[in-house]
Amino acid sequence: MASKKPSKFGHLPLSTSSIVDCALTGEALLNTPYFNKGSAFPIDERHQFNLCGLLPRNVQTLSMQAKRAHEQYMSRSDDLAKNTFLTSLKEQNEVLYYRLLQDHLKDMFSVVYTPTEGDAIQNYSRLFRRPEGCFLNINDEDRVMHDLSLCGNPEDIDYIVVTDGEEILGIGDQGVGGILISVAKLVLATLCAGVHPNRCLPVVLDCGTDNPGLLNDDLYLGLREKRVRGQRYDAFVDTFVKAARKLYPRAYIHFEDFGLRNARRLLDLYRPSMACFNDDVQGTGCVTLAAIMAALRVTGQTLGDVRMVVFGAGSAGVGIADQVRDAIATEGNISHEEAAKQIWLIDKPGLLTTATDVSDAQRPFIRDASEWHGADTSLLAVVQRIHPNVLIGTSTVPGAFTQPIVHAMATSCPRPIIFPLSNPTRLHEATPGDLLGWTHGKALVATGSPFDPVSGPWADDGSTVEVRIAECNNSVVFPGIGLGCVLSRARRLTDRMLVAAVQGVARMSPACTDPTAPLLSDVEAVRDVSVSVARNVIRVAVDEGVATAEGIPGDDGDLDDWIREQMWEPAYRPLRLVGTEGATRAARGELGKAGTVNRAGEL
């Protein structure tokens, strides 16, 4: 594939239309994933970089290579084997890896991410071939600064994803195998938003594990000791954060799959002083809010009209409540306390009130117990009493949204917004088929897992209509947020920036123009969505004075061009041979996965 056409923003350091400097030749070049083109090296570069005798004579295109790679991928026996194949491909040729994923994104998404990535993480120590990322362990806290410094110079790293491996993809404590969730999230950031892959850093904080299977596995690669908690844990996390901030002062830090006791606490601790994000706390809330805002566009309502019940008041449910509250407050220019009055949380004890034992995170949403004294606070009773127009399920209670509950909503709300988000599918509070059937096709539905379209006789003339169901997948929002923070060099990620990101997703909802379309864009359109998200994030960052990048365009058209010019694409760019003396770390092949591997990608 040829390089992009010249751009007026081609002078930018992250430009993707310029020629790439390379100080490597021969085997060293072929063994560097982000430079390697394999059989697609053109004749002039084969001569210039001493590759002629190292490659078969026929020069192929990237599309031909992708076709061959897809045939190899399809020959693998199961999804885990396909995941392992993709990992090996990434270790050999980064452009080809991302091109293959881009060409088959919908089919491969579940293999490169959840649920198959969860299987790969559980088998990390058994499938291990070579390390990727930075491994920091709590017994070597004094080495954190040194070990982290090996990953680049201050200007080399834009995006860090860090995990402690305690709550991975619903499969719990996976210890050092959590490094693969950091890797996977960065793959999505590149695939969905064009974050440069060799400027990303996956990190795992190995604090031990409470998983008995790992503690008793002699092949386990992490610390085989009980997970450290308390003050020593906090000090270790703080050491990492301070080291990362000192070494890579422009990097955006994404916390991923920390335990319930730590995720929100750490986010609240560091968010006021740096650009950071937690996908479990904020990402789920943002994508759900985007779907709600899209549904409100369909119904002709605003956030001020929201009356929302959240069934399941754990971290996901409260995270969603937080994002909706913040958006209501921002749009209505009211206090967070006033906005919270539009939201009701229900958990195992029923409606959360001042008489209920609640966590600090739940406390802003509790209701006055005197108003509910002696009353039934079950989900059905609450729906019948408060007449919500939005019902969110994060309870993992299968079938919790019964026909009477849905009918109670529909009697006071002509287009009820109902999102059963619990994963996996067997734990959904209701199926889209039931929700649409019980409301004669009027419900606006989004789910936490993929569902097939639902058909029914819901047209005004009684004819059959097929409705496509939106999946609340965080990948439509978190990559664009990260891209916006990276490009604007934001000092912080503010509430207004998050609300703006959500508006960028909602604005592109297919349901706004097609009543049978899903509330959220399909994953295949996610790069366009990411541009919309990044644009909004950057605009607010500039407005709030937290953007530090120079030369951010004021015109929306120019800003979109500025963003797209800096979004990495899986395309081979021309290489320019430079001398090793004075060459950048990038030109020397030392970014991303430093070092070399053989062509099998194995140790």
TrEMBL record:
Divalent metal cations. Prefers magnesium or manganese. It comes from the Eukaryota. GO terms for molecular function: malate dehydrogenase (decarboxylating) (NAD+) activity; metal ion binding; NAD binding. The active site is at Y113 (proton donor), K185 (proton acceptor). Its cofactor is Mn(2+); Mg(2+). The keyword Metal-binding applies. Pfam families: malic, Malic_M. (S)-malate binds at N423, N473. One of its GO terms (cellular component) is cytosol. InterPro entries: Aminoacid_DH-like_N_sf (IPR046346), Malic_enzyme_CS (IPR015884), Malic_N_dom (IPR012301), Malic_N_dom_sf (IPR037062), Malic_NAD-bd (IPR012302), Malic_OxRdtase (IPR001891), NAD(P)-bd_dom_sf (IPR036291). Residues 90-271 form the Malic enzyme N-terminal domain. Keywords: Metal-binding, NAD, Oxidoreductase. A divalent metal cation binds at E256, D257, D280. The keyword Kinase does not apply. One of its GO terms (biological process) is malate metabolic process. Residues 281-542 form the Malic enzyme NAD-binding domain. Coiled coil: none annotated. Belongs to the malic enzymes family. PANTHER family: MALIC ENZYME-RELATED, NAD-DEPENDENT MALIC ENZYME, MITOCHONDRIAL. This is Malic enzyme. It comes from Tolypocladium ophioglossoides (strain CBS 100239).
